Amino acid sequence: MIDHVILTVSDFERSVPFYEKALKPLGLTDVTDFPAQEGHPHLKGFGTNGSWFLWLKEGQAQPDAVHVGLVAAGQNKVREFHAAAVAAGAGVKTAPGPQLQYFPGYFATWILDPDGHDIEVVNKTGQVE
Description:
Layout: E1 5-9, H1 12-23, E2 30-34, E3 43-48, E4 51-58, E5 67-71, H2 75-87, E6 91-98, E7 107-112, E8 118-123
C-alpha cells in the first residue's frame, strides 16, 4: 500500500493552485504546508480528512520519472476531474473514456500538469456516478 507520493514541480505559485482546482472533484480538498526544516525540503500536501498523500516539492521537475494514478468514485468524477484540470491549465493527453485494452470497466483520463507530469484518474468499477 502506498502512503504518499512526492512530485517535484518547478513553481509552487503555479502548481499549488493548479492541483487545488484539479483535485477538488475527487474530494481532495485539504491542503497543508510543511515548511522546510533541517535536511527536509518545503512541501505542499493534498488529501482529505487531515490525511495528505500527494505532496509537491519545488525543484527541478522530471515529469518522465513518475506516473501518478488517482481513483475516482465513478465515471462522472473522472470527467469532472478532466474538466477542472483543463480549466486550470492542464494539457490533455487522453480524454475521458473507456480504456478496455486494460480490462472491462476501466474508464480513465490522462492529463499533463504544468510541468508535464502524467496524471491519470481512473474508475474501474464501471459505475457512472
